Amino acid sequence: MAADPAGLQDLRRQAQAGDSKGQEATARAFEALLVGQMLKQMRATSFGDGLLDSSQSKLYRDLHDQEIARAVSEGPGLGFRQLIMQQLGRRSANPAQAADPSELLMPQRNPHLHPMRLLQPAENDAAGAVAAPPFNTDHWPPASPEDFLRQLRPQAKAAAAKLGFDPNVLLAQSALETGWGRRMPRHADGRSSFNLFGIKAHGGWSGEQVKVGTLEFRNGVAQREQARFRAYPSPAESFVDYVDFLHRNPRYRDALASPNSREFVRGLQRAGYATDPNYANKILAIHDRLNAMMARGSIPNAAQEMASATVTSKSS
Question: ω into residue 235 within 30 of 0, thus cis?
Fold first, then answer.
């Protein structure tokens, strides 16, 4: 076949005629082609050419691979030949009967499957989808940490409900990433990106993005780099995308399965969410500060929620 590719036409005619020998020869030929492609792909994954490699050595290597593929197909093979012959045999046995719809079996349901049921709208949402409350950007950026918490707490509660963790953990992480909403990546015209969680614009992101300098830790050493970050119309969309981002990335599976919020934060760091070696400790320190602010009533609504949750936990 390597010397005369036109020989494939003869094999095709023999296979269509229903000749058993022609079918076997066709199956062996295509198995050799498949094995050759496998070897080619394996060669492509190497780290590069050796010091003594040349165009002549590559030619002999390719010829050697073709010989290996031919030898494999002439022996028992890898199982492709048998499958190809089965398909060719079915087509040539009785084409008219095979094409008759009245002879086709109706699809049967697997009796071991559970009965199907209609999902409620909440159940039918995509994993991690969260409908965040509307957000008014007229009062952004926040004037103080307390203002930051008042504005973002509704969105944090909606996102935390999907993740199963304390809203204050999300608020603490966004406070660390943005300096309490005062330091966010910005567009060239000065508009805020509203990126609360420092999510970079890669991994198939097709929305708006901004390019800014960022501080990254490489081998424990901090250095300035240029990076592209995702941009959103408001902080509400940032919370929505954060939940979706965690659910869609398998490396955060263990973090999402954490037994509590503190372990969730540490799980994010173990999964490589940020390069800062003290990332989790910084978030937890802000989280403790938030709890203290709530306890002394600096955030009225949050303090009331905390008191209500305490009473509920004691009575349950």
Answer: no
H or E, element range at 267: helix 261-270
Q: Report the pLDDT averaged over residues 167-172.
A: 94
Sequence-distant (≥ 6) Cβ neighbours of residue 39 within 8 angstroms: 65, 68, 69
Across 11-49, b (16+ Cβ under 10 Å) vs e yields: beebbeeeeeebbbbbbbbbbbbbbbeebeeeeeeeeee
Bridge-partner residues for 26, per DSSP?
none
Q: Which pLDDT belongs to residue 250?
A: 92
Rounded to a whole number of angstroms, the CA Rg of the chain reads 31
Which among 225, 24, 73, 233 has a CA at the least distance from the CA of 140? 233
CA–CA distance, 29 with 21 (Å, rounded to integer): 12
Q: pLDDT for 24-68, tens place per residue?
A: 777 777 778 788 888 787 777 776 666 677 777 778 888 888 888
Report the percent of the chain where pLDDT is more than 70.
Answer: 67
Instruction: Indicate the residue type of 80.
Output: F
Q: Is 18 in contact with 48 (CB distance < 8 Å)? A: no
Total-model pTM: 0.53
- Residues with a catalytic annotation lie at 216, 241
